[in-house]
């Protein structure tokens, strides 16, 4: 399962590659969830989750406040939540989640990204059945045994707790995200290295050097699209 922590690190590395783009994506997501429910994270669980994620990416407070104020102001800007599934080089699998105010534009851009980089779009369900929706919460300064004891005392069920790299990573069902985090916070853990709802592959594939280079370009192109929020895949990119 060590490879899964590498996946999370890849996502978090986005903030180093282009922080302004990452902040813009968070601003859009915060606006959408705040508009769909209450603009108060205490009353809106989805908003609270996005803000927890934003914290691990060091999203500035003014970005968050501006998005929430925009939702409070009754903006008529609407976004559709879309999921695309496809295949990269040598049968690798990719899931793309997007928020868009122009479905045709986004579909065209995602399709072009696949087509120009050795992949092709699939139909809904063609890939996602090979992934598991998973809550992933990571922290430093505790051992796996200590975290397990905290969660057991709080009667919180998880899939696994592993020490990976220099962190302890908790894997749980998506609906246990807040229970896990609340139990850890109650035990004095307030800083998290990762706090994600992600799609983890049930198995991984390894590509040869040429195919991996093409695959990495595909992922880069997809992640650089303004409408794309998250990209998941089943390729072991190594260290």
Molecular structure report:
Belongs to the TACO1 family. YeeN subfamily. Pfam families: TACO1_YebC_N, Transcrip_reg. It is found in: Cytoplasm. This protein has helices at residues 2-17, 19-36, 45-56, 61-72, 103-115, 144-153, 177-186, 209-224, and strands at 80-87, 93-100, 120-122, 131-139, 160-164, 167-172, 194-201, 228-233. The strands form two sheets. A four-stranded antiparallel β-sheet has the order 3-1-2-8. A four-stranded antiparallel β-sheet has the order 5-6-4-7, sandwiched between helices. The longest helix is centred in the N-terminal third of the chain and has 18 residues, at 19-36. The protein folds into three domains: 2-72, Orthogonal Bundle (Arc Repressor Mutant, subunit A); 80-129 and 203-233, YebC, transcriptional regulation domain (Alpha-Beta Plaits), CATH 3.30.70.980; 130-201, Alpha-Beta Plaits (2-Layer Sandwich). The chain contains eight helices and eight strands. It is globular and about 50 Å long. It is an alpha+beta fold and 239 residues long.
CATH fold annotation of the largest domain: Alpha-Beta Plaits
Order of strands, widest sheet: 3-1-2-8
Residue stretches low in confidence (pLDDT < 50, at least 5 long) are none
CATH superfamily of the largest domain: YebC, transcriptional regulation domain
Structural class: alpha+beta
Largest sheet: 4 strands, antiparallel
Shape, principal axes of CA atoms? globular
Domains, number? 3
Family: Belongs to the TACO1 family. YeeN subfamily.
Protein name: Probable transcriptional regulatory protein OEV98_05270
Organism: Perspicuibacillus lycopersici
Keywords: Cytoplasm, DNA-binding, Transcription, Transcription regulation
């Amino acid at each position: 399962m060590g490879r899964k922590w590498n996946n999370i690190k890849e996502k978090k590395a986005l903030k180093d590659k282009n922080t302004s783009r990452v902040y813009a994506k968070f601003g859009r997501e915060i606006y959408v969830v705040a508009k769909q429910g209450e603009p108060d994270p205490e009353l809106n669980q989805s908003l609270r989750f996005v803000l927890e994620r934003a914290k691990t990416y060091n999203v500035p407070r003014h970005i968050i406040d501006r998005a929430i104020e925009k939702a409070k102001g009754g903006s008529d800007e609407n976004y559709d939540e879309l999921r695309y599934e496809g295949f990269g080089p040598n049968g690798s699998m990719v899931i793309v989640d997007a928020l868009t105010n122009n479905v045709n534009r986004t579909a065209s851009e995602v399709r072009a990204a696949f087509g120009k980089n050795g992949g092709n779009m699939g139909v809904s369900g063609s890939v996602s059945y090979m992934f598991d929706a998973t809550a992933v919460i990571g922290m430093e300064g505790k051992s796996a045994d200590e975290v397990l004891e905290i969660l057991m005392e709080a009667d919180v069920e998880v899939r696994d707790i592993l020490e990976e790299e220099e962190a302890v990573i908790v894997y749980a069902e998506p609906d246990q995200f807040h229970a896990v985090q609340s139990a850890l916070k109650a035990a004095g853990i307030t800083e998290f290295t990762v706090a994600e709802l992600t799609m983890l592959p049930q198995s991984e594939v390894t590509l040869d050097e040429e195919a991996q280079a093409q695959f990495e370009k595909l992922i880069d192109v997809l992640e650089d699209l303004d409408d794309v929020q998250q990209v998941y895949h089943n390729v072991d990119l190594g260290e």
